[in-house]
Specification:
Elements: H1 2-19, H2 22-28, H3 32-38, H4 43-46, H5 54-79, H6 83-97, H7 100-106, H8 118-131, E1 136-139, E2 142-147, H9 148-165, H10 172-189, H11 192-204
Antiparallel strand pairs: 1-2
């Protein structure tokens, strides 16, 4: 799982110094207003290697480590030597596309900022769910093993609900859009995975 490790190392190498370097943090964070006014489009990507604190960083990197290995294995199996390109596109695409809705929503709000790899990590998790829909996963607030297919549906519903509330300073909208991108990208690569997912739901219900 060397690609996942490279991503983790790069993310930690930027996030940890930025904890105590406000100038670095400010230059890389996602701020739609600054992006629009200063044309600093690179922020659509650099925010993904920043994190607010140690907990934020460790949770995201732990989830990436946990699911990234399985997604790498699945992509190697299905796509051969192209798997590295597809994995990188999945992750980087998750970083970019998960905040496009936030850019449109907050491009006139100078106060709005976002950091973290949550959108990209959600893309990896949902790619895993498409590859292995029958595996068991658990929600943090519901420590009961669930089929990955059910977990994915509950995650999307929860993220959409919390994004509408917008009262806990967590980027639930990035989680939601990152998850949708991860699903769509994986299905585009291997369309039959969608029917496999639907069939798995049929077995459950």
């Amino acid at each position: 799982m060397f690609v996942t490790w490279i991503i983790i190392i790069i993310t930690c190498a930027v996030s940890i110094p930025a904890f105590s370097n406000n100038e670095l943090f400010s230059k890389l964070k996602f701020n739609p207003y600054i992006i629009r006014e200063a044309k600093q489009w690179y922020r659509f990507f650099t925010y993904g290697v920043l994190h607010a604190d140690w907990t934020h960083l460790l949770v995201n990197m732990f989830v990436l480590y946990t699911f990234g290995e399985q997604v790498e294995k699945a992509m190697k199996y299905y796509f051969g030597v192209k798997w590295i390109l597809y994995y990188v596109l999945l992750y980087v695409g998750g970083i970019f596309l998960s905040v496009v809705p936030s850019f449109e929503k907050h491009k006139n709000d100078s106060w709005y900022n976002a950091v973290g790899a949550s959108g990209a990590v959600s893309a990896i998790v949902f790619s895993y769910i498409l590859f292995l829909p029958a595996s068991k996963l658990m929600l943090f607030l519901l420590p009961i093993p669930l089929p990955a297919s059910i977990f994915g549906i509950l995650y999307l519903v929860f993220s959409a609900y919390m994004a509408r509330k917008s009262n806990d300073n967590i980027g639930h909208d990035a989680h939601f859009w990152g998850a949708l991108f991860g699903s769509a990208f994986t299905i585009a690569l291997k369309p039959e995975l969608f029917m496999n997912f639907i069939n798995q739901l049929g077995h459950i219900f």
